[in-house]
Amino acid sequence: MEYFVTSAEMKQCDQSTIFDFKMPSVVLMERAALACVETLIQSSFDLSHVLVVCGSGNNGGDGFAIARILKQKHINVEVLFAGSEESCTPDTRLQKEICKNYGVKLCSKAEFNEYTSIVDAIFGIGLSREIQGIYRELIELINQSSAKVLSVDIPSGIHCDTGSIMGIAVNADITVTFAFKKRGHFIGPGRDYTGEVIRKDIGITEDGFAGTYPKAYSYNCMEDMKLRKRTRYANKATFGKALIIAGSRNMSGAALLTSKAAYRTGTGLVHIFSGECNRITLQQGLPEALMTPYEEGTGHQLLKDILHWPSVIGFGPGAGIDEDKLKILELLIGESRVPLVLDADALTLLSKHREILKGHKQPIIITPHVGEMVRLCNMSKEEIINDLAGAAVGFAKEYQVICVLKDAGTIVTNGEELFINQTGNSGMATGGSGDVLTGIITGLIAQGNPPFRSACAAVYLHGLSGDAAYQKYGGHGMLAGDIIDGLQQVLR
C-alpha cells in the first residue's frame, strides 16, 4: 500500500522533516535534483541539449540544482528563469546563485525546438490559481516542442489535490515525484498529463506525518487487498451466494457479464434474476448459474420470494428503468439486509428518487461513472471532473454509502477513507466494462470480504485484469469479456 497526498499533507510532512528532524531543506532539494538527473540519464532522454525552465518557488530551486548537476556532468544545459527575483524562496535564490558560480548558462529567451530535452520546474504542488500571461505562453511552447519533457514533482498546471487543469498544463513524458505520489497524478484530467510517474525517496518518510496519516491510498500488489483466504475444507455455500438482478429485453449481455464476473471472482453460487425474454440466452451463456425469469411488470412481486436467499445483491446492469424496477429498488433498500451493489439503471432510478437511500439499514455500494454522478449530485460535468474526490466523498458522507466513482483513475470512498486506483488502461473504455466491475464487487462481498475492502480490491482487480487483456489484445481490440478472461489470469 502507498499513500497519495494532498498539497497540505505533503507540506506538513516536509516541514516536519525540516524542523522536527532537523533535515536541512537545501539537502532535500539537492537529493530531489539528483533523483531527477538520475532519471534523465536512465530513461533514454536525449541530453544533447537540455533546457531547464525554472519558477521562483522551491520547484524552481530543484530545477536550478538539476541544471548545475547536469553541467558538472558535462551535459550541454541552459536555464530559462520564468520567475522573479523578488518572489524567489531562500533556497531557490541560493541554488540560482550556485548555478551562476558554476557557469551554467541562463538565458532570457529560448527557441524551444532547439532542445532535445526539457525539464519543467515552473510550478510545484502549491499551485492554486489559473495560469495566465507569460507562464501560459511558456507552457504552450513546451507542449509544442518536439523535446521529451520531464516534470519535477508534478507537471506545472495540474492541481495537486484534484488533478484539474489550471487553465493549461505541461504534458510530461515522465514525472519524478518525491517521497509520496500526489492525488493529482492519478485522478481527474491531470492523469493524462503526468506520463510515467516515478516516485523517488529523498529523505522524507512517513515519520513526517507524526501519526496523522493521509486519507488517500492505493494498492501496489495483490497482497495489499487482504482478501479472505479460500479454505480447503469448504463447499459452494462457503463462498457465498450472489443474486444478480440485471438484464431486460435486448440487454441480456449485461446480466451475463455481471454474473460471469461474479463467478470468476470465486463466488460459490450465482443466481440471475432477469426477464423471461433473456432466459435461453443466459442459461446457454452461463449454465452454472441459477435463474429466476419473470414476466414484465411482475419482477418485484416474484423477488420477495427469494430475498432471503443471497448473501449479497447486485442490481442495475441493463435492468431497465420502468415502474417495476423502481419497485424492485424500493424493495431491496427497504426490506433486504444484505449488502447491495447498485449500478447503471439502478443509479438512474436513484438519481430521481434519492430519498429512498435515507435511513437504509444495509451496506450500499454505488458505482457511477461521471455522467451518472452528475445526475446523482445535481452538479455539472465540469464540477465533477474538477473535483472527483470531493464529489464522491460528499455523496458518500451524505447518504452513508460507499461510492465507486469510475474514471481513468477510479476512486472508492466511504466518506472518510479514499482509495485511488492505479491499474487499468484505455482499452477498458468499452461497453460492458462497468458490468464486469459490478460482478467482481458482488463476488468479493459474497465470499465474506468487508464491503469497503471488496470495492477497493474489485477496482484494483478490474484494472489489473484489463491490463492482462491489454497485453493479449491491445487497446483497440479489447471487449469487456476479455477483462473476465484477464481476471482468471491474475487470480491464478
Sheet with most strands: 12 strands, mixed
* CATH level 4 superfamily of the largest domain: Ribokinase
Shape: elongated
Provide the residue-averaged pLDDT. 96
Task: Give an overview of the whole structure.
- With 492 residues, the protein is α/β, with parallel strands linked by helices.
- The protein folds into two domains: 213 residues, YjeF N-terminal domain (Rossmann fold); 270 residues, 3-Layer(aba) Sandwich (UDP-N-acetylmuramoyl-L-alanine:D-glutamate ligase), CATH 3.40.1190.
- The chain contains 16 helices and 19 strands.
- It has a twelve-stranded mixed β-sheet with strand order 8-1-10-19-18-17-16-15-14-11-12-13, sandwiched between helices.
- Strand 11, helix 6 and strand 12 form a beta-alpha-beta unit.
- The longest helix has 23 residues.
- The mean pLDDT is 96.
Secondary-structure map:
Elements: E1 2-5, H1 7-20, H2 25-42, E2 50-54, H3 58-72, E3 77-81, H4 90-101, E4 105-107, E5 117-121, H5 133-144, E6 148-152, E7 174-178, E8 181-182, E9 196-200, E10 216-218, E11 241-245, H6 252-265, E12 269-275, H7 279-285, E13 290-294, H8 299-303, E14 312-315, H9 323-335, E15 340-342, H10 345-352, E16 364-366, H11 370-377, H12 381-386, H13 388-399, E17 402-405, E18 411-413, E19 418-420, H14 433-446, H15 451-473, H16 480-491
Helix pairs in contact: 2-3, 3-4, 6-14, 6-16, 10-11, 11-13, 14-15, 14-16, 15-16
Task: For the structure shown, list the relevant keywords.
492 residues, alpha/beta, Rossmann fold, UDP-N-acetylmuramoyl-L-alanine:D-glutamate ligase, 2 domains, 12-stranded mixed sheet, 7-stranded parallel sheet, 19 strands, 39% helix, elongated
